[in-house]
Design a protein that fits this description.
This protein is an all-alpha fold and 113 residues long. It has one domain.
């Protein structure tokens, strides 16, 4: 039963990481678009009022993606709690796990003098 939980947790972890990576990529591309809009306007020597609605749309998309990323970060935190609830506190994902943690794990045992 523990092995099935580990397998399930790893499937969810990989899916979560893929979603996080996708949102990060979308965030970067949306920011790139906003920058390209500004550069294009300046390079073409256009008035600031030209395509203002497009600037606002790009900014709104960036804000929406940022909020979605925050929701996914919260999902990650909640899944970390769920992992502990189902007895997988010490589940390690190997040396390919490059995701940073938000804090250090607290050891169960401490050295004594």
């Amino acid at each position: 039963m523990l092995n099935k939980r580990k397998e399930a947790a790893m499937k969810v972890a990989h899916s979560l990481w893929a979603a996080e990576d996708a949102l990060d990529a979308a965030l970067a591309k949306a920011a790139e678009l906003s920058g390209a809009l500004v550069s294009a306007r300046v390079d073409a020597n256009l008035s600031a009022i030209v395509a203002q609605d497009a600037f606002e749309g790009a900014a709104a998309a960036l804000a929406t993606i940022t909020r979605a990323r925050g929701e996914l970060v919260e999902t990650h935190r909640r899944l970390t709690e769920a992992k502990i609830q189902i007895g997988l506190r010490t589940l390690a994902v190997g040396d390919t796990d490059t995701k940073p943690t938000t804090g250090e794990a607290k050891p169960y045992l401490q050295a004594v003098a």
